[in-house]
Specification:
Oligomer: single chain
Number of strands: 4
Radius of gyration: 14 Å
Strand content: 15-25%
CATH architecture: Alpha-Beta Complex
Strand order of the largest sheet: 3-2-1-4
Bound molecules: zinc ion
Number of domains: 1
Length: about 150
């Protein structure tokens, strides 16, 4: 990766960190899930409204480091309008990308997190929102913690 590209990626992450998209509670949501990353102190809560199997609208609230907020912000943009199966495929692709640097599938704008694999402590920050959305889609009621992830 060239320095220019990593600068661009950092700008996208900083922008979403400072101005997170869909950063509010969602009135009348059908599903929600909380995620904690005790290692870093990241906490977030996702809200979803569903239309059948498709995510109609999605938002989040929470606090944490720049990586976790930017990841949640980009996730809400990427997941809106997607089906559960499509989000599951994105989760697999993003998870592989942040742990190995290589995406297993189409990740779109989420490619900005490819560099995270070089910083193992930040991988959990980047993947936290993804665990939360998987939990919300499954209907789990327990908060997810990155501490239970086997990495
Ligand atoms: Zn973090």
């Amino acid at each position: 990766m060239s320095d220019d590209l990593s600068d661009l990626y950092q700008q996208v992450i900083l922008d979403h960190c400072k101005h997170p998209r869909n950063f509010h509670e969602l009135a009348g949501h059908h599903r929600s899930a909380e995620g904690h990353n005790p290692l870093c102190g990241d906490q977030l809560k996702l809200f979803l409204t569903m239309n059948g199997d498709r995510i109609q609208d999605i938002s989040f609230v929470g606090s944490g480091c720049c990586i976790s907020k930017a990841s949640a912000s980009l996730l809400t943009e990427a997941a809106k309008g997607k089906t559960r199966a499509e989000v599951e495929r994105m989760f697999e692709a993003v998870h592989q990308m942040v742990t190995t640097g290589q995406a297993a599938g189409e990740v779109g704008k989420l490619a900005v997190f490819a560099g995270v694999h070089k910083f193992p402590a930040r991988v959990k920050c980047a993947i936290l929102a993804w665990h939360a959305i998987m939990s919300a889609l499954k209907g789990d009621t327990q908060p997810v913690s990155t501490e239970t992830e086997d990495m």
